[in-house]
Amino acid sequence: MSLLSVEEALELVLALAPVPQPEDVDLSDALGRVLLRDAVSRMTQPPFDAAAMDGYALRRADLPAPLQVVGEAAAGRGWDGALAPGQALRIFTGAPVPTGADLVVMQEDTARTGDQVTVTAPPGHDNIRPRGSDFAEGERIAAGRRLGPADIALLAAMNVPRVTVARAPTVAVLAGGDELVQPGETPGPGQIISSNDLAIAALARAAGAVPRILPLARDTEESLRAAFADAAESDVIVTIGGASVGDHDLIGRVAADLGMERAFHRIAMRPGKPLMAGRIGGTAMLGLPGNPVSAMVTAVLFLQPLIRRMLGQTDAMALRHGRLGRDLPPEGNREHYLRAVLSDDAAGVVVTPFADQDSARLSVMAQADALLVRAAFDPARTAGDRVAYIPLPH
Ligand SMILES: Nc1nc2c(c(=O)[nH]1)N[C@H]1C(S)=C(S)[C@@H](COP(=O)(O)OP(=O)(O)OC[C@H]3O[C@@H](n4cnc5c(N)ncnc54)[C@H](O)[C@@H]3O)O[C@H]1N2
Ligand code: MOO
């Protein structure tokens, strides 16, 4: 039986995402979140005709005669009254323009003596921002919008302090294996330090989820069962390791005992072949391979898109193009995601894969800027060929 392609597998993983659930958040927590309900402005902006310059408000028809300065308006401190013919008002940026005035002359273009002001340069633009010229009360930011920094500023200006967005999914991260101890502990004979759980939690957080790293599990069914029980309330459980065919690779067995509906196990991808996905009760499950680079690559390709889908984001993963920086041999029967560095030359982006593609080498992964994507059975390539890549988060 031929293995699923990455594309087919991704579709099955995205199908595990439940409909996004609403949650109200303060604007300070809204960056990157997707609006689930329209946000409606409670303000008109500017709320009054506002000066765009520090200078003098006056009537254009009065020029070029000298004018009498009758008062002052600053931002937050308006001037009550209407400007009569022959009068000018000292005004500062953001202040309401008084009734009667139709021009603000910037102070660099004026000369002042006592309470007399003369305009010294021919006036051009009126330097008035009309009421409502930015936005009006009742204007909407439509549901579906992913909020960036400028959206948050706009919502604040609209006096919308909280917004309804898709709830951030909770992701339980379960690493395990008798060989693992935590960073800071002293490894015994044959032991190494667990890195995958931190890596996957970081990728989950970067995609917008709320990760929770579970205690390291041991290579026993009992230990894994306890961990799955601990994660039952999470939206997603990500296991790392124990996905392959070894005698100690218990994840598949324990998950099946717990009633996992399996979407697939193993895909035509390198690294990442032992990837597993499915659902246990209300929790989506991804079983990532244990090799540290394989775990991270599969998290970038499957976990992060799953989280983004749960957050209401529907845009596909950005595949970019550049030119190959070195010759490559023909590809095997799995789609290959090679760790690569990006550089620029006069003709654009150059993508140079590392010679060392061992799926356990974190030192190489940490230097990589991108994953160079090669199709299964891709023929030999030479430097300069057009290639596709996925940028990696730094
Ligand atoms: N006979 C076969 N052997 C293997 C196959 C195969 O198809 N047939 N696939 C290989 C591939 S590809 C991968 S990837 C690994 C995946 O195996 P598992 O998912 O079962 O992972 P483990 O055996 O538990 O661990 C693999 C490797 O990764 C280290 N590891 C695990 N967890 C962590 C962690 N939290 N932090 C750091 N390092 C971790 C673990 O010590 C192992 O060295 O299987 C191949 N074998
Ligand atoms: O998938 Mo293993 O993930 O090739 O190293």
UniProtKB/TrEMBL annotation:
Gene3D superfamilies: MoaB/Mog-like domain, MoeA, C-terminal, domain IV, Molybdopterin biosynthesis moea protein, domain 2, Molybdopterin biosynthesis moea protein, domain 3
Record EC number: 2.10.1.1
Top EC class for this record: transferase
Cofactors required: Mg(2+)
MF terms (GO), sorted A to Z: metal ion binding; molybdopterin molybdotransferase activity
Keyword Magnesium carried by entry: yes
Reactions this protein catalyses: adenylyl-molybdopterin + molybdate = Mo-molybdopterin + AMP + H(+)
GO terms under biological process: Mo-molybdopterin cofactor biosynthetic process
Stretches assigned to the MoaB/Mog domain: 172-309
Top-level lineage group: Bacteria
InterPro entries: MoaB/Mog-like_dom_sf, MoaB/Mog_dom, MoeA-like, MoeA_C_domain_IV, MoeA_C_domain_IV_sf, MoeA_linker/N, MoeA_linker/N_sf
Keywords: Magnesium, Metal-binding, Molybdenum, Molybdenum cofactor biosynthesis, Transferase
Pathway listed: Cofactor biosynthesis; molybdopterin biosynthesis
GO cellular component, one term: cytosol
Chain's role: Catalyzes the insertion of molybdate into adenylated molybdopterin with the concomitant release of AMP.
Family stated for the protein in its record: Belongs to the MoeA family.
PANTHER family for this protein: GEPHYRIN, MOLYBDOPTERIN BIOSYNTHESIS PROTEIN
NCBIfam families: Glp_gephyrin
Protein name in the entry: Molybdopterin molybdenumtransferase
The species this protein was found in: Paracoccus sphaerophysae
